[in-house]
Design a protein that fits this description.
208 residues; alpha/beta; Rossmann fold; 5-stranded antiparallel beta sheet; 6 helices; 35% helix; binds adenosine-5'-triphosphate; ATP binding; ABC_transporter-like_ATP-bd; AAA+_ATPase; ATP-binding cassette domain-containing protein
Length: 208
């Protein structure tokens, strides 16, 4: 469960944001829609405390992230928040499997190779586990990115424009996978996007 209250943020005195309060229960999903420049990425980064809000709160499963120290925030995020970035970021010298296991390492958890194999099978990239990530297509990398976000069975999945560079068929596939995977682990799924095609795939929507 994730809830925010009265979140505000400023890049400068002339560039400040007040965001609407949002709430997303476990196993539920929320779409946050906005045109370019409305602050979608900023909002997503505030939800993960990658940016520190000027005021307001972000509560995940009863922990108010804004009360934690930077080290506590990093540890909480690694264990409880899975992030699917707009463009996947991988360690290119590592295999796909090792990039997945890195999520365990960063969360100070034991390597979960079976979980990685299970996700690879569900998301359809089992045959690529031994490859380097740059040997995969963009669509395949996107699926690895989703798998990596699910590795620690987080309470919250945050996805930033996960479909912007995909055709209709692949966009539908990625959204179905995000819904399916987050429901399997009982996570709250929050997607920020300008992609109006996604409207029908979410009952809960907020406009920025
Ligand atoms: N580090 C920064 N310093 C100053 N201004 C910034 C910074 N990052 C973003 N902004 C500004 O804040 C506004 C919101 O940016 P943000 O990236 O959150 O928008 P967005 O809705 O995700 O846009 P897009 O859909 O184009 O990615 C933009 O006007 C942007 O120029």
């Amino acid at each position: 469960m994730l809830t925010t209250q009265r979140l505000t943020f400023s890049y400068s005195p002339t560039k400040s944001f007040t965001f609407p309060d949002v709430s997303c229960p476990d196993s539920d999903a929320l779409l946050i829609l906005g045109q370019s420049g409305t602050g979608k990425t900023t909002f997503l980064h505030l939800l993960a405390l990658l940016l520190t809000p000027e005021s307001g709160s972000v509560v995940i499963n009863k922990t108010d992230l804004t009360t934690l120290s930077p080290a506590q925030t990093a540890a909480f995020r690694a264990a409880n928040v899975g992030i699917v970035y707009q463009k996947p970021h991988f360690v290119s010298s590592l295999s796909v499997m090792d990039n997945l296991l890195l999520a365990n390492y960063l969360a100070n958890k034991a390597e979960a190779k079976d979980r990685a194999r299970q996700l690879a099978s569900q998301l359809g990239f089992s045959e690529h586990l031994g490859k380097k990530t740059n040997e995969m297509s963009q669509g395949e990398q996107q699926r690895v990115s989703i798998a990596r976000a699910m590795m620690n069975q987080p309470a919250v999945i945050l996805a930033d424009e996960p479909t912007s560079s995909l055709d209709d068929e692949n966009a539908n596939r990625v959204i179905a996978l995000l819904h399916e995977q987050s429901q399997q682990i009982g996570a709250s799924l929050i997607v920020v996007t300008h992609d109006q095609r996604l409207k029908d795939a979410f009952t809960n929507r907020v406009n920025l």
